[in-house]
Design brief:
By secondary structure, this protein is an alpha/beta fold. Helix content is 40%, strand content 15%. The radius of gyration is 17 Å and the shape is globular. It comes from Aquimarina litoralis.
Length: 246
């Protein structure tokens, strides 16, 4: 705990058996109280590795429901366990758990209610091996979003995030997509509710075991990002209302 705030790390997992132990071993258990792993019907040994590591809270989807659906299960379980701060961390070791201290202290001390680990601040993404086309797409989409949403984030696409329970309880997450666009919808919901978001520089590690989506799905994701940003713009201007902004 920090300032009597219960901290829970959630791991949305899919075929993460090769990297789960390395990720888990770097979680700072001097402040982290619980770990929740949700397995989205992996075809590898993710569940077995999680059990060997002693993770108490393991949920398994009976079918592959998608990245967004995985996160929904993660947050519901963490809040049910009484979390005050929830850290969403990919178990593929693309992001280092060593930043959990910094992210949680900002929330526990009421500096910011949401903290993102940004790969784009500094040179972490390219040094860590992010493919150039993904880096360029990230920069373009982020510029487009900042203009429409009226913010100044360095990126909207990181998979390393920390939230206060007040933020999570205020969002209509069940109205969001079950796919990858969930992340972007969630950030737009947070801004719509008037919460501020902090970013800290996050080194990145891309390897053959890191989770990634192929080019076609990347294009679909990019289009979804643009649509979500336009929906937010229309909503804030009072042109049209969308269910995710309840």
């Amino acid at each position: 705990m920090i300032n009597n705030k219960k901290i829970i790390v959630v791991l949305p997992a899919y075929n993460a058996s090769e990297t789960l132990q390395k990720t888990y071993n770097e979680i700072p258990f001097d402040i982290v109280d619980e770990v929740v792993l949700v397995d989205d019907n992996s075809v590898d040994e993710t569940i077995e590795v999680a059990r060997k590591l002693g993770i108490k809270h393991i949920l398994k989807h009976d079918e592959n429901k998608g990245y967004g659906a995985n996160q929904k299960s993660c947050y519901l379980k963490a809040l049910a366990l009484g979390a005050d701060i929830v850290v969403m961390l990919h178990p593929d070791y693309q992001y280092t758990p060593k930043l959990i201290h910094s992210m949680c202290y900002l929330i526990a001390n009421k500096v910011y209610p949401v903290v993102l680990g940004s790969r784009i601040l500094g040179k972490g993404a390219l040094i860590g091996g992010m493919p150039l086309y993904k880096y360029i797409a990230n920069r373009f989409l982020t510029l487009f979003q900042n203009i429409l949403i009226g913010q100044k984030l360095s990126e909207y696409h990181t998979g390393f995030r920390a939230f206060s329970k007040e933020v999570l309880n205020s969002l209509a997450l069940d109205h969001n997509s079950d796919d990858f666009i969930f992340d972007n919808q969630m950030l737009c919901q947070i801004f719509n509710k008037g919460f501020e978001i902090a970013e800290i520089t996050c080194p990145t590690t891309y390897s053959s075991e890191s989770s990634s989506i192929n080019f076609n799905r990347s294009v679909t994701y990019g289009l979804g990002v643009c649509i979500t940003s336009i929906q937010y713009f229309f909503h804030k201007k009072g042109i049209k209302t969308f269910s995710i902004f309840k």
